């Protein structure tokens, strides 16, 4: 039975990297618009939800115009307080951050399930494959962040497509299994896939702007 990897704690460093990289792009709109109240990642959690102004709404609409599921994309961006002061690149970071948090939580969940001594062999094998797949996904999202920081939008798309492929690999392993963990993981795979595709769509728009 595979035990939780000692490197799993490193997954929690990625959200911090995202926050540090995201800050300048979240605050750009506030700098350009003196009437807008500045909102950063540091105080976003405490900020009361407010209506988006027309300029911000239009930018979010533009960011989501290349997404396969536009309604989902709009929901992801509008639910993050940082979107009120983000430029287009900042919105891409927000989408990556959402994918990062989701992938990290699921990776940790998989490792906990691997410690279940009552898991049947078929599920155990599938979870082992998914464990490695999600380690790769977390790394690939981190590589995407680095590429976005440097303006290498093509590399962001390459890494995020690789992440989606790894999610699909995991999903193929649990497909057909009816035990609770497999069913739950299938749902988590679907959610993360949507988040990754949302980030991909925004980066495509950014690349053509």
TrEMBL record:
SUPFAM superfamilies: Plant invertase/pectin methylesterase inhibitor. It comes from the Eukaryota. Keywords: Disulfide bond, Signal. GO terms for molecular function: enzyme inhibitor activity. Residues 1-29 form the signal peptide. SMART domains: PMEI. PANTHER family: PECTINESTERASE INHIBITOR 5-RELATED, PECTINESTERASE INHIBITOR-LIKE. This is Pectinesterase inhibitor domain-containing protein. It comes from Rhododendron williamsianum.
């Amino acid at each position: 039975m595979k035990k939780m990897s000692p490197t799993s704690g490193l997954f929690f460093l990625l959200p911090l990297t995202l926050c540090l990289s995201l800050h300048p792009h979240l605050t750009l709109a506030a700098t350009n618009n003196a009437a807008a109240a500045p909102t950063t990642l540091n105080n976003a959690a405490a900020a009361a939800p407010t209506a988006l102004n027309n300029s911000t709404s239009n930018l979010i609409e533009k960011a989501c115009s290349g997404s396969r599921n536009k309604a989902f994309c709009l929901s992801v961006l509008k639910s993050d307080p940082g979107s009120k002061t983000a430029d287009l690149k900042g919105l891409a970071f927000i989408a990556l951050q959402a994918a990062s948090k989701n992938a990290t939580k699921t990776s940790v969940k998989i490792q906990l399930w691997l410690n279940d001594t009552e898991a049947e062999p078929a599920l155990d094998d599938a979870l082992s494959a998914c464990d490695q797949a999600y380690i790769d996904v977390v790394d690939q999202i981190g590589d995407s962040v680095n590429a976005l920081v440097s303006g290498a939008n093509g590399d962001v798309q390459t890494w995020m497509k690789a992440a989606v492929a790894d999610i699909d690999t995991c999903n193929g392993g649990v497909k057909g299994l009816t035990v609770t963990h497999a069913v739950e993981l299938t749902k988590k795979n679907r959610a993360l896939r949507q988040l990754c595709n949302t980030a991909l769509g925004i980066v495509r728009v950014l690349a053509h702007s």
